Amino acid sequence: MARKAFKLASWTSMALAASGIYLYSNKYLDPNDFGAVRVGRAVATTAVISYDYLTSLKSVPYGSEEYLQLRSKIHDLFQSFDDTPLGTASLAQVHKAVLHDGRTVAVKVQHPKVRAQSSKDILLMEVLVLAVKQLFPEFEFMWLVDEAKKNLPLELDFLNEGRNAEKVSQMLKHFDFLKVPRIHWDLSTERVLLMEFVDGGQVNDRDYMERNKIDVNEVRSRAQGCRAGERAWSRLPRKCLCVQISRHLGKMYSEMIFVNGFVHCDPHPGNVLVRKHPSTGKAEIVLLDHGLYQVLTEEFRLNYCHLWQSLIWTDMKRVKEYSQRLGAGDLYPLFACMLTARSWDSVNRGISQAPVTATEDLEIRNNAANYLPQISHLLNHVPRQMLLILKTNDLLRGIEAALGTRASASSFLNMSRCCIRALAEHKKKNTCSFFRRTQISFSEAFNLWQINLHELILRVKGLKLANRVLALICWLFPAPL
After folding, report:
1. Which residues face 224 on adjacent strands?
2. What pTM did the predictor assign?
3. Cβ 32 vs Cβ 151: under 8 Å
4. Which of 117, 177, 196, 443 has a CA 20 to 30 Å removed from the CA of 324?
5. CB distance 347 to 337 below 8 Å
6. Bridge partners of residue 282, in order along the sequence
7. Backbone phi and psi for residue 92, each to the nearest 5 degrees, phi listed first
8. How far is CA 94 from CA 85, 152, 292, 350, in A?
9. Taking a C-beta distance cutoff of 8 angstroms, is the pair 158, 110 a contact?
10. Which among 30, 121, 266, 394 is annotated as catalytic?
11. Are residues 77 and 87 in contact, defined by beta-carbon separation less than 8 angstroms?
12. Would you put residue 350 in left (φ > 0), alpha (ψ -120 to 50) or beta?
């Protein structure tokens, strides 16, 4: 009981971190990683891979005749099957296998005890949250239990995960940098999911990108044209390798949130891989683990679009209006800070204009504890959809911190493009007038042109600066004759 109480305390503290108050020391912890769900981590689950996928080694003595019979069923399905998992999490573990037709697959197997134990964990969570409420009336954490009750059954259904994977793959098919592994439906069930095996390094592994020579930044190509190209490139900051990856993630999630309202809510580094595309050699993002998605209502999505547009263009009157529409009430300044992970002063000056400073980060960390009651109140009153969006924002910022990048003017412009498109589509859908639809389309095109022009100006300035830096490095470290 003490161990579970400790886990609840840890999860609660991270839920507050997920509110958007950015901490460099943030640790990922999912609501469904609670309590005894982790018991199955070390359980040998390979024997569940059979046609009915309903058996396990839980009650079979190791080395017995029954064990060997169950183990042999794996060979009916696979040419080879790696007993050592590639990765293990709270709900499942993943094995690499080869089918008889030669295809290499990833086999995600649910731990045997998870489904039976999950309801007990949620009940224990509810009891402990009520106890915390008695001790600290100002903290309201009942939403933790509500979210766990809603999301855990969805994550335990691997067929639902497969459907989500196919939906997001189709939805974002226009992004050539995104790879979603294909699902093998003929060998998948609620507890076992077979998918295309895709190798790669975690998105925060900069060493992997360098070892595999993943070219993710335009500066490198220019460096190769210099006499001391590779020597100069090696002296550029390592975070340059990660800028394009960070931009791709921003584009992908902006499209999910603002345009489609269907959001992958588990983008921790283990679920976001980077690899070199086998054919083109370009950097490619591999998105895994599609069990947890948030479906946004149209009203919420449009209000969220308006709010981010207002934040980007520093329209504080509309920031207040749309924050209050989303349940923030008089705490709208705190809500804006939670969404942007910036100080209120930076929000007022313009988050796309004022760069993040070490002083600002320190200010946020030092002041976080002072606002815990207000954060608790806010999280209890915003729409439930906002909770997973806040968590997603926090995990993306964690990736940015690991990559050494932070949201830039370019990433905000991409967000603004998605907001403009989403709002224009909504207006066109709700008018029957051809003239009005044409007017909306022209307005949309003009606004997007303005953003493109602004981004072009920023890139020209950045190109001049990059060329100057590169020339200076080449001059300081010339190649030997």
Report:
1. none
2. 0.76
3. yes
4. 443
5. yes
6. 215
7. -160, 175
8. 5, 19, 17, 44
9. yes
10. 266
11. no
12. left
